Amino acid sequence: MITILLAVTIFGYLSVILESPIRINKTISALLTGTFCWVVIALFSHDDQHLVTEKLMHFFGEISGLLIFLMGAMTIVELIDIHKGFTVITSRIRTTSVFQLLWIVAFITFVLSALLDNLATAIIMVTLLRKLMPKSEIRMILTGIVVIAANAGGAFSPIGDVTTTLLWIGGQVSSFGIVKALILPSIMVLLVPVVIASFRMRGFAVLRAQVSMAQVKQEEKMRGSMSVFVAGVIGLVLVPIIKALTGLPPFIGVLISLSMVSLVSIVYHRNKPQEEKDKFSVAYALSKVDISSILYFMGILLMVFALQEVGLLRELANILLAHLPNVNSMVIAIGFLSSIVDNGSLVAATQGMFPLTTYPMDNSLWEFIALCAGTGGSMLVIGSAAGIAVMEKEKITFMWYLKKITPLAVAGYIAGIVTYLIQTLLIH
Question: Which positions of the chain have pLDDT values less than 50?
C-alpha cells in the first residue's frame, strides 16, 4: 500500500508542477491524486473500511472549514471590488515621481495584503499600475515589487496568505502570536528589496513624463464605495477576534463578516430594480470567486491527510532531520522549495510531519515555517498565487523576473530570516 501511495503522490505532484507542458489543469491533477490516495487506503489498509471512512470524514471536517473560510473571504473581497471600494485608496495616489510611487505602492500592497489576502491585493495593485502608466520597464519592476510586498504582508497575518491561514486554522499559530512574531521580519522582507530598487530607480525619479497619473481619468466612485470597503475591512479584521473570544472555527467569523458586508450593500441598493440589485448581490460576487483554487486545495489536503494517516509524513520528517543540520535549515529549504512547489501544499505537509504535542501552538517552528513558506514564493514568478496572477496580467516572462526581481526577493528573504532568528535569540 505504501508503495502505491508514494507512486500516486509523486505522479500527482509532477502533474501539478508540469501543468503547462502537459496541459492538464492542476486542480484536476490535485483532485484525482487526493481522492485516489484514499481509494488506495480503503482497498489495501488492514483497517475496516467503516473505520477508514470515519477517519476520512474527520479530516474532511477540517478541510471543509478551511474551504468555507477561503470562499467567504474571497466573496467579501469580490463584493468590495464590485462596489469599487478599492478606489477609496487608489484614487488618493497623486504623485508623479517614480521613486515616491515605488514606496507608496509597496506600503499599500503590504498593508492591504495583511487585511485582505495577497492574491486579491496583487491583482488590485497591478490593475492600478496599468491605469497609471503605460507598459514599460518601470511598470514591470513595480509589479515585481507588488509580488514581494503582497507575500510579505500576507505572511504575518492569519488571513493574509493561505500558508498562514492553514497554520492558524490547524491550531499551530494564534492570530496575535503570528502577528507579534512575524511583523518585523515581514517588514524586512519588503524593506530590503524596496531600498535596493530605490537606488535602481533614482534615475527614473525625475522622468515625470514616464508617469501619467495627473492625466489619468480616475475610476469613478459609486455610492456606497466607502461604506462597503470599511465594512469589508472591519469584517475581515473581526474574524480572528471572534475566534479568540469564542473559540469557534474561523469560518463562523468570516460568514458573520460576509453577512455584514452584504447588509451594507443591500441598504444602498434596496430601492433599485431587481435586475440592478442582482449585480451587487452575494450570488454575483460568488460567481467571480476562483472556485478552481478552492478545489485545488481540497485535493492537496486530501492527499496530505492520506499520507499523514499512514505515517509517511512523519517518516519523511525523520529522514530530513537526520540529513540536515537542524530544523531551521529544513524550514529555510522549504522556503526555497516553495518558489517551485505550491507553498500551501508544503505547509500542509509540515503540519503532518510535526505533531502539536511536540511543537505546540506558537512554537517558533510554526512561525518560521509561516515566514519562509509565505515569503519564499516571491523568489520565482511561479512560486506564489500573487506571482502567477501578476505574470498573467502583465505578461511577465519567467526569465525577466528571474533576472530583475529574483535577486531582490532573495535579499528580502535572507533579511527576513536573519531578523527572525536574531529576534528569537533575543527573546529566548
Answer: 205-220
- Cβ within 8 Å of residue 222, ≥6 positions away: 83, 84
Cα distance between residue 402 and residue 387, in whole Å: 12
Report pLDDT for 185. Answer: 95
Q: Using CA atoms, how far apart are residues 398 and 391, in angstroms rounded to an integer?
A: 8
For residue 213, give the C-alpha cell: 497619473
Query: 79 Cβ partners below 8 Å, 6+ apart?
Result: 228, 232, 258, 261, 262, 265, 280, 282, 285
pLDDT, position 366: 92
Q: What is the DSSP string of 169-221?
A: HTTSS-HHHHHHHHHHHHHHHHHHHHHHHHHHHTTTTT-GGG--GGGS-PPPP
pLDDT of residue 342: 67
Q: What pLDDT is attached to residue 418?
A: 95
- Say what the pTM is: 0.76
Residue 327: how many CB atoms within 10 A of its CB?
A: 17
Cell numbers that stand for 150 in this block = 503582497
**For residues 149-174, b (16+ Cβ closer than 10 Å) or e, as one string?**
bbbbbbbbbbbbbbbbbbbbbbebbb
Q: What is the pLDDT of residue 218?
A: 44
Q: Are 56 and 309 spatial neighbours (Cβ–Cβ below 8 Å)?
A: no
Q: Is residue 328 a contact partner of residue 418, using CB atoms and an 8 Å limit? A: no
Distances (CA, A) of 381 to 80, 260, 353, 394: 27, 36, 28, 12
